[in-house]
Amino acid sequence: HVRCMSNTSQKTWMYVAFVFIIIALIFIGITFYQYVSYQMQYSNLNSEYQTLNNQYSVLKSNYETLSGKYNETLIKNLAYDHWLSIASKDINSLMSQYSSNAIVYWFKGPLAGNYTMNNVTRGPTNTVPAAKDIKTLWIAFFNNKPVIENITNLNINLTENNAVVKAVVSFLFTGGPRAGTVLKINYELDYTYTNGKWVLYAEWWIPA
Known about the structure:
By secondary structure, this protein is α/β, with parallel strands linked by helices. The chain contains four helices and seven strands, in the order αααβββαββββ. It has helices spanning about 1-70, 70-85, 90-95, 135-140; strands at about 100-105, 115, 130-135, 145-160, 160-175, 180-195, 195-205. The chain is rod-shaped and about 130 Å long. It starts with a helix and ends with a strand.
């Protein structure tokens, strides 16, 4: 009778142990499933974060490009740099501001004419040059030792890839045959946005 009770007790503990093991395995399985699920969610969230971060970087880059491109202050500074380069007779700075196909339209006076970067523009017969070299123009103009007396009526028209700056610029000649005289110019600078920067492609010099 005692042995029977002992066997029954052992079976009971075996059942309890078995149930405990089953519960433990279920718990481990659930925990492992949750862990894998969390890992997958983390991986998905991390992937989405990387995607959003990349999109943000692109948008930020585009914004910085556009904010730099469509900036009237930048265009104004370019125009003033151009005029100050003339006043300081800095030929290297001046020439670096032009596009490769730039042209200067100079009206009236001994320097009147059209000027290009490489003197290749020709007349209707294709035998007589219709334009002179821009660098030669400025070297000749510098003989008058010009300084800027004032800049007035500044106006900037900025579109997608083009900017037009207009102003009345007065130059005082401090040397040459016209020393002491003032030349007032209706000035126009035409810029175009190319290869990530603004360059000067046309310049209009019209005495007021």
